Amino acid sequence: MIKRTLMQVQEMAKGHGLAARYEDTVITGVSTDSRKVGKGSLFIPLKGENFNGHLYAQKALDEGAAAVLWGESEENPPENAPVILVKDTLHALQQLAKSYKEQLRVKAIGITGSNGKTTAKDLTAAVLSTGFRVYKTQGNFNNHIGLPLTLLSMPETTEIAVLEMGMSAFGEIELLSKIAEPDAAIITNIGESHMAELGSREGIADAKMEIVKGMKPGGQFIYFGDEPLLKERTEALRFSTKPVTFGKSAANGYYPTNIEQTDKGVTFSAHPFQDALFIPVLGEHNVWNALAAAAAGQYFGLTEDQIKEGLEGLQMTAMRLELSKSEQGWSVINDAYNASPTSMLAAIKLMEDLTGYKRKIAVLGDMLELGESEAEFHRGVGEKIHSDKIDYVFTFGKLGEEIAAGAKANFAEGMVKSFTDKSALISELKSLVQKDDLLLVKASRGMKLEEVVAALV
Q: What angle do CA 166, 181, 161 make, to 5 degrees?
């Protein structure tokens, strides 16, 4: 993590006002949360509509912070303490992170997409780690605050940063791209997430394409070539390095020629590789994410053997198609971190494809931020669930009722049930589930369906 004198920090953040007696004080790390201040760190108080971190600056100092940044417009800065004045603390955080990355001469790869960006991040980091010292985004630190904090937490020995870039509105990915200045950028796909804010899939594609705006000259753009919206926008731009595509069809630079799914992961053959590859993560759709990671690995000069090793050694972020088995003998796929129609249908297809289980129970909750057509999207998911491959459908939430409404046309009476009370849902599942059953738990993060998983496993 960042370790600099306060004089250096002041220059990097483009601040002023530091008292001369504190210039040689060294900070180690930064924090924007006074409850999680590390000893000797720099506290950066952020300000929003309903909060003002400046009110907790003295508390941060009392808890061990070595210094604070302070917005010029805020009154009563801490006395007898190292304070650096800046015009805007959020902008200063972003500028400090950008300067730190530049000083380390770290290469970066930015990854975004409606679905799969966290898995693609994990896969890319695993591949690149076979040849470089890699640091990747932790958890959901993928926005205008999280990405700078990710950069500032990098060890000084980092050679490549693998950075997830999330967004909910236009302009956000562009900001992140210009902070990180990636040497390569990946777009995993275009789905329906954030339809409420962006209006259409075309709007989502425009927002995701912002990732190339900060990409370094000569950088490599890698995208899902089976998506016409991405192809159209890519062809309208001029790249000094030819973009690389991955996807299902042979029209892409990277595509699978054979896929075998088990409950341990996916084995697949793919162009342009000689040997079969394996990823220890569920879901045929994750083959595309693996191919994006492989393309990044080849761009950075890795061999096929290194790419194969990296994919096999994947360490996944939690709650993404995690398969666990209970002491009673049933299995649960935990995919409760996030959801959209595209990712939910992919998870259902995975469940349908897995063999060796007595019964299959889909537990599906609300998918959030889908805009005016949210009810239609949920009903459409329900209509696509096959009763010959899934035995029961349980839904949770008001929008989950729409999934149930769509599914009831295909299922016998009593095989589809809706709940708005999580305790009642858990109780019903516990009374139903048996040894050798398989359950899928999938919903947007706000529904907290990991609580259902915890009750079952």
A: 70
